[in-house]
Design brief:
Layout: E1 9-10, H1 11-17, H2 23-31, E2 35-37, E3 40-41, E4 47-48, E5 55-57, E6 60-61, E7 70-75, E8 103-104, E9 113-119, H3 122-129, E10 137-143, H4 149-157, E11 160-161, E12 164-165, E13 170-175, E14 178-183, H5 190-197, E15 202-210, E16 223-225, H6 228-237
Parallel strand pairs: 9-15
Antiparallel strand pairs: 1-4, 2-3, 2-5, 5-6, 7-9, 7-16, 8-9, 10-14, 10-15, 11-12, 13-14
Helix pairs in contact: 1-2
The protein binds uracil.
Length: 243
């Protein structure tokens, strides 16, 4: 929404606040025509309402809405990916602050560990989980037995599951019984079912990356807020369907 002249905040101030760079750097970005507001290239002196304006730098929306929060949690096994569990098990929502209310982006099985996003940013969550955006998720699966090269090829080329064949994936052996699998679909229990289908049940499953987001130093059960750069890189990853 265009703020009438004289109202709203200066665009460079809003950009600087969300971590794009110093005000000077943000002024240069505007002067270079790299900033759009609601689809139009912005000029220096532009004022915006940061609550409603869609601001993009180099085509990537910037997270200017101060009401939005984005957490990454290292989910431990035994915690369920819901807000409320009728069986009273611990939930991922119980591991992050109560306010503002956030929801998990997609789900990990109760037994699965690793990175999970929680946010109140509905648009980003929708895009990250919608198959048309094809965001990669990387898992490390410890499996029963010793997968052969033929098994890995099968995982890469696609596995027949009861809800249809899986799309091509990346699969590499990082230890004799440990497969790193990168998929861009998000079907229910997909990695477990893929491994089972090729004869290697999963004994431990950890998600290690969501699109551009990874964090090897986040301890199990702990969370942190995403940096502005991380939010922007996620937004870039889902800027276009199929990109
Ligand atoms: N695939 C699975 O099998 N389980 C998960 O939790 C995530 C992906």
């Amino acid at each position: 929404m265009t703020a009438p002249s004289g109202e709203g905040e200066r665009l460079q101030k809003v950009l600087a606040r969300v971590g794009i760079g110093s005000r000077r750097v943000c002024e240069d970005l505007i002067a270079e025509g790299r900033v759009r507001v609601d689809g139009d290239i912005a000029v220096l002196g532009r004022r915006v309402d940061p609550e409603t304006a869609l601001i993009e730098v180099d085509g990537a929306p910037v997270g200017v809405r101060p009401d939005l929060v984005h957490y990454v949690l290292n989910k431990p096994a035994g915690v369920v990916t819901t807000a409320n569990d009728p069986q009273g098990r611990p939930t991922v929502v119980g591991l992050v602050p109560d306010e503002p209310r956030v929801f998990p982006v997609g789900r990990l099985d109760a037994d699965t560990e690793g990175l999970l996003l929680l946010t109140n940013d509905g648009e980003l969550a929708h895009r990250l989980t919608h198959p048309s955006y094809g965001v990669e998720k990387e898992y490390v699966a410890e499996v029963e037995g010793l997968p052969t090269r033929a098994v890995l090829r099968h995982l890469r080329e696609g596995v027949e599951l009861d809800d249809g064949p899986t799309a091509p994936a990346r699969a590499t052996l990082i230890d004799p019984s440990v497969v790193r699998l990168t998929i861009h679909e998000g079907r229910n229990r997909q990695v477990r079912r893929m491994c089972e289908a090729v004869g290697h049940s999963v004994v431990r499953l950890v998600r290690t990356r969501i699109g551009p987001l990874a964090d090897r130093s986040l301890a199990p059960g702990t969370w942190r807020e995403l940096t502005g750069d991380e939010v922007r890189s996620l937004q870039r990853a889902v800027a276009e369907p199929g990109s």
